[in-house]
Amino acid sequence: MTITKKILQMIKQYDRIIVHRHMRPDPDALGSQCGLAEILRTNFPDKEVYQVGGPVEGLAFLAEMDEITDQLYEGSLVIVTDTANAPRISDERYALGDKLIKIDHHPNDDPYGDLLWVNTQASSCSEIIADFAFAEKLAITENAARLLYAGIVGDTGRFLYPATTSHTLLVAAKLLDYGFDATKLNREIDQISLDVAKLSGYLYQNLQIDNNGAGYVFLDQGILKKYGIKDSDTASLVPLPGTIDVVLAWAVFVEQPEGYYRVRLRSKGPVINNLAKRYHGGGHPLASGANAKDQAMCQEIYHEIQILCENYRKK
């Protein structure tokens, strides 16, 4: 039996399904989570289907979360999308369900759940959810297609990143046929505030780059407050160093109100997810996240990026 049939079989066994995703959601987290929830509601109208996980941090144009009681988890099936490690699942009540399905495209370092579908070759978890729907001939609404397309666009950087395959483009093309306004959606994903635009200038001016293309910039609380920016607003800044020709891999260190740093790592070649794992994080080979307790640890991380870039240049 294929994995899609196993998942569908388990879905059919439950009257209540609760779908989770990771903390601090990006378009793929919301696209895969809420796209799946929408597909399940459409194809199984007699089932209760909820999407949970707290604030959507600037992505309300995609979807909002349901607020449910603990009691609803009793006897329920829980599905978690786009979340590599269990500690990153948003809303720890995911463990209260009867059974748990993990659907993801990150390296399977934490194989949690009773049933797992992890496809690291997929561009995004939204691509996997679309594959599931197509394979099992499930009805897809215009809104579900919009959500899944948003997830694919978000995780591929509009089809610019290496994870984009011919299959990715085929799936995206099929989703476009459902008639949602892709131009509007792309504009919503791409749009930034004037304050974020001004902070982009600060990032470019303060980015430090060594001779091998290792770069970093600090965005401390003072800078964030000066520009009126929250941590969730910085996501659109992370790809910017990559537009510079001499930059090979980089880190954006964002200070949190509690004092530690959220570390956003990106690369054009050197593999960085193993580095992220050593600092309480993880992700893809060329796009990962981590955490650092202070600036000294941030400098440790940057030093490791320098070594990765130096070794990569020698190949």
Protein traits:
single chain; 315 residues; alpha/beta; inorganic pyrophosphatase (n-terminal core); Diaminopimelate Epimerase, Chain A, domain 1; 2 domains; 6-stranded mixed sheet; 5-stranded parallel sheet; 10 helices; 11 strands; 17% strand; globular
Mean pLDDT: 96
Q: What structural class should be given to the helix and strand makeup?
A: alpha/beta
Distance, first to last CA: 43 Å
Global geometry: globular
β-strand percent reads 15-25%
- Specify the number of helices: 10
The tally of beta strands, per DSSP, is 11
In the CATH hierarchy, what is the architecture of the largest domain at level 2?
A: Alpha-Beta Complex
Q: Describe the sheet with the most strands.
A: 6 strands, mixed
- Level-1 CATH class name of the largest domain: Alpha Beta
Q: Would you give the CATH topology of the largest domain?
A: inorganic pyrophosphatase (n-terminal core)
Strand arrangement, major sheet: 6-7-8-9-11-10
Fourth CATH level, the homologous superfamily of the largest domain: inorganic pyrophosphatase (n-terminal core)
